[in-house]
Amino acid sequence: MELNIVLWSFPHSKRHVCSPFHQVAVPVLDGLIQAASQPDSTFDVTGVVSQPARPSGRGSRRSPPPSPVAQAAARAGIPQDRILTPERAGDAGFLDALRSLHPDLLVTAAYGNYLPTRLLGIPRQGTLNIHPSLLPAYRGAAPVQRALMDGLTQTGVSVLYSVREMDAGPVLAQAAYEIPEDIQAPELTQRLFELGTRLLLDALPDVWAGKGPSLALPQDAATATAAPKLSSADAALDLGLPAAAVHARVRACAGWPGSHVAFLVRDPAGRESTLTLKVLRTRLAESSGPGTEVQNTSQEPNQVELAPGALTVRCGDGGRLSILELQVPGRRPVSPAAFINGLRGATLSWVPIQ
User: Fold this and answer.
1) Using an 8 Å Cβ cutoff, are 185 and 251 in contact?
2) Is residue 132 within 8 Å of 140, Cβ to Cβ?
3) b/e code 274-299 from CB counts within 10 Å (16+ = b)
4) What are 43-79's pLDDT values in tens digits?
5) Strand arrangement of the beta sheet that strand 320-327 belongs to
6) In what order do the strands lie in the sheet with 171-178?
7) pTM (2 decimals)?
């Protein structure tokens, strides 16, 4: 008997539909479809649930494109009437359409909201969620970003049964992942979902045999930590923090909401202006960290070091942070060398957050 899986990807944010984080369910879908196509497969991917098509730009008059996972489902040959795009998970019409797919298992990826009880009762084998953290740590909408902000060197991914409480269900499978020093949130998120897909596929034989609920381990609620979603306010980058903390925030906020800093520009004639820059990628300079301060010959402690091809800031602990890629809002990202050439001899100092 062939069993049916429905993949659900419905990011918590209705905005920022071009965000890299909306792409992470695509490799999950691809992995499931590839596994289902094998001669010895016992299941099929019979449907996909995704967010409705939404405009990608303010005031855009073009017809909004389908979500990335809906596009991937169409490319894979899933019929349009099996690509469901409800406004709300509790809509009666949507629940009827989901029932008509006769799902044995519902798999959720990149879903940041609560699932209603009426929906959880539809799939015969329950609902499994791929969550990019080592639960019960970092329950919530932004586990990868919060782990990076906290300076973790290890995170992981969990495959758990969904319950009414956010990310609180019993864990069926879990694997740790060492965090590379300079990796940013979008790439780390994708790697964790790819790992989670492999864990899910390995666990499916036990699920189909009805052993999943007895093998899954309950979480220790007393040790749970929260990972609330980021906001646009998180984009303000405070260079007064230690260099390692600033680097961690740039990595965590990459993609969305991003990181921006205000700089004071002083040209050779002494004229001053303020320029806000998006900081896209950074790296800790070799001399970063407490006790490794380098003598600053400038009379201004916040002045940026402008060397050929390098732009380095001194953070609150005296540690130095190299900016590898930056952007003037409304323009294309540039390298430090290109940006320095455009300064034409002007100096740059970062402005503390008030």
Assistant:
1) yes
2) no
3) eeebbbbbbebbeebbeeeeeeeeee
4) 999 999 998 887 655 555 677 889 899 999 999 999 9
5) 305-307, 310-314, 320-327, 272-284, 260-266, 347-350
6) 83-84, 43-50, 3-9, 105-109, 127-131, 154-161, 171-178
7) 0.92
